[in-house]
Amino acid sequence: MQLGEVFTIIVSSAEYAKEVMKTQEIIFASRPIILASELLAYNSTDIAFSPYGDYWRHLRKICALELFTPKFINSFKPIREEVFTNLIEMIASEKGSPINLTEAVLSAIYTIISKSAFGKKDKDQE
């Protein structure tokens, strides 16, 4: 089946899902190249959009060894604790008034990402 410009397969049974995800995984491992990934991800060279192959495996190895270690993840624990404490206090301060929880949680997540990546909140979040 084709959805827009992307060829798509639909798997409707556990047996075929196993075939696609295990036996034939390399055939289906890459994401389609789209204009947005070309423009925003440096010609699709980041880990999210890079085609499966030696380069992608190298990026994955770097992430596994450097970014996704318990020590690295735990180094941001104080940021997560601060942001979620502030979120809980904000929710408690509303005292039964309706709040947009989706907006509040997304803002908290955005703050965590901003503080983790750049060491501070984005100026638009102040």
UniProtKB/TrEMBL annotation:
It comes from the Eukaryota. The keyword Heme applies. Transmembrane segments: none annotated. Belongs to the cytochrome P450 family. The lineage of its organism: Eukaryota, Viridiplantae, Streptophyta, Embryophyta, Tracheophyta. Keywords: Heme, Iron, Metal-binding, Oxidoreductase. This is Cytochrome P450. One of its GO terms (molecular function) is iron ion binding.
